[in-house]
Amino acid sequence: MVLGDTTDDTRPLLRNYFAQMGLLLCNENPYLPSLPTVGGTWNDIVAMMETREVFYSKLYKGRVTYLSRALYYHLKPFRQREANLSPEAADLLFLLRQTGPAGTEELKRLSPLPGKALNRCLDELLKELLITAVQRDKTLNETWCTFLWADYTVWEGAAPSLPSDPAQARRLLEGLLSPRQITKLLS
């Protein structure tokens, strides 16, 4: 199947994958499963983000990392550490909380940060699971779009929360990462 192929709905396949594994990378990687390697399509993963089935992050080595709802809630005790943010990222988070969902272009207009600094702060917030993509902003082509970013509470508020269990986080990650990688990810 070609990424972006809209003839088949790959959401059932992706739901099954997320139920078992919990974490999926956007782009191919020699060490972890990615959207193309499991047979998912871009439009289906975006639809799952918009329905709050998947949380968009940059949790794994700064790469786009999709998390199942369950894994997201299991990871919450290890992330969302606002005290660890750089002052610039904290200011950007405050701005995003004030404006509500906003695209990168809007944030560039509203924030005093230059483009590269803004992107670095967005990445920092995505890694800490403090913000996520909540819907498409602009469709660039059939396999790529920009997003509206929002505080994690916007994402959480759209569907019932799940219980957090750090042991379950470890169990889901064991099928993908080494014990050392898991410890690093959870610290």
Which sheet architecture does the biggest sheet show? 3 strands, antiparallel
Percent range for helical residues? 40-55%
Unreliable residue runs: 1-6
Strand adjacency order, main sheet: 1-3-2
The count of strands amounts to 6
Strand content: 15-25%
| Class from helix and strand fractions | alpha+beta
Helix-strand topology string = HEHHEEHHEHHEEHHH
Number of helices: 10
Mean pLDDT: 93
Cα shape = globular
In angstroms, what is the radius of gyration? 16 Å
The rounded distance between the terminal residues' Cα atoms is 37 Å
Task: Characterise the protein shown here.
Helices cover 45% and strands 17% of the residues. The strands form 2 sheets. Strands 1-3-2 form a 3-stranded antiparallel β-sheet. It starts with 10 loop residues before the first helix and ends with a helix. The protein is globular. It has helices at 11-20, 35-38, 42-50, 69-75, 87-99, 104-110, 115-127, 152-157, 166-174, 179-185; strands spanning 23-25, 54-57, 65-68, 102-103, 131-141, 144-151. Helix 4 packs across helix 9 (166-174) and helix 5 crosses helix 7 (115-127). With 187 residues, it is of the alpha+beta class.
Quickly list its features.
single chain, 187 residues, alpha+beta, three-stranded antiparallel β-sheet, 10 helices, 6 strands, 45% helix, disordered N terminus
List the helices and strands and how they pair.
Blueprint (H helix, E strand, L loop, with lengths): L10 H10 L2 E3 L9 H4 L3 H9 L3 E4 L7 E4 H7 L11 H13 L2 E2 H7 L4 H13 L3 E11 L2 E8 H6 L8 H9 L4 H7 L2
Antiparallel strand pairs: 1-3, 2-3, 4-6, 5-6
Helix pairs in contact: 4-9, 5-7
